[in-house]
Specification:
By secondary structure, the protein is mainly alpha-helical. The chain is about 65% helix and about 5% strand. The protein has 11 helices and 2 strands, in the order ββααααααααααα.
């Protein structure tokens, strides 16, 4: 199960070759990785507190860049209100938490995968790490695209009231919740192609089936964008649905490349379903074909296992 190592007076535990651990060791490792993740988030929050003024200006820039006639003061000042005495401090904590989670994402993602991957095979572990890195990049790209569309969504929604002389009194906590929802929804939507690729690599969804359902998938993408966007306006919906459709095309190309590679390595590709697959009568030949390292090489003076001398 577990081996205990002692080096320079330090007691260490290590997994066996199969990666097995006791329940107590699993819980201790989970606690350690959670503590590291929380510490990383705390460090990110400290950084956010130090640069709070700059971060706050970045988050409120889409609203402040609206025409003056659509803002509360109607002048150059950009005013967002609070509705309680502790509202400003709560907003600062909210901003610090958002920035802390984003800045520490590489660390807590690594801690998550470091906890999961020991139970996987080497090839599965490699793909898991690749997918985790790709997931972070896609989420960042989606959030950036959501921030880009934020100003257009605000102009579209606030524009309804400006036509009849209504000026919105926007509380900063409501505004930050709206911004957070936009960033999270766009970031999560950009994970859609990665989900398709994972299903293809797992053998659940073939590239041919994925291509055959393109009409339903594109329709579902636009319905999803119409439902989950907080603003629910056609412009923001299109800004989400169009990139998702393009990413679906990229996922389709990756799935076709993977299926083609898998078909080249399949010994029984092209055989009819009603035809029996060829049987390997000699287990020795099967092991040699699979490259079993336990089989001796006859060319080096040894004889294969199970053969006559």
């Amino acid at each position: 199960m577990l081996r205990v190592r002692r080096r320079a007076g330090v007691l260490r535990t290590a997994r066996d070759e199969a990666g097995r651990m006791t329940l107590a060791e699993h819980l201790r490792e989970l606690r350690t990785r959670l503590v590291r993740s929380f510490l990383a988030v705390a460090v990110g929050m400290v950084v956010a507190f130090v640069f709070y003024d700059r971060v706050f200006k970045v988050l409120t820039r889409p609203y402040c860049e609206l025409p003056a006639s659509r803002r509360l003061t109607g002048g150059r000042d950009c005013v967002l209100t609070v509705t309680s005495i502790t509202g400003a401090f709560t907003v600062q904590l909210h901003v610090a938490m958002i920035v802390g989670v984003i800045l520490s994402a590489p660390i807590w993602l690594y801690q998550l995968w470091a906890f999961i991957t020991p139970g996987l095979h080497r090839k599965e572990r490699r793909w898991a790490l690749i997918f985790s890195g790709t997931s972070g990049v896609l989420f960042a790209c989606g959030s950036a695209f959501g921030y880009y569309s934020l100003g257009r969504a605000l102009a579209f929604l606030i524009g309804f009231g400006s036509k009849v002389g209504l000026t919105p009194l926007i509380a900063i906590d409501r505004y930050l919740s709206f911004v957070t929802n936009i960033l999270l929804v766009f970031g999560a939507s950009f994970e859609f192609p990665l989900l398709l690729v994972l299903l293809n690599f797992a053998g659940i969804l073939s590239a041919r089936r994925l291509a055959g359902a393109w009409r339903s998938i594109i329709f579902g993408v636009f319905v999803f964008a119409a439902v989950v966007t907080p603003s629910q306006d056609p412009l923001t919906m299109s800004l989400m649905a169009v990139p998702m459709t393009l990413l679906y095309g990229v996922a389709l190309l990756v799935a076709f490349a993977h299926d083609r590679r898998a078909a080249r390595n399949d010994l029984y590709v092209g055989l009819p379903d009603e035809e029996a697959s060829p049987l390997v009568l000699d287990p020795q030949e099967d092991r040699d074909a699979q490259g079993d390292p336990s089989v001796a090489d006859p060319g080096r003076g040894g004889s294969p296992k199970g053969s006559l001398p």
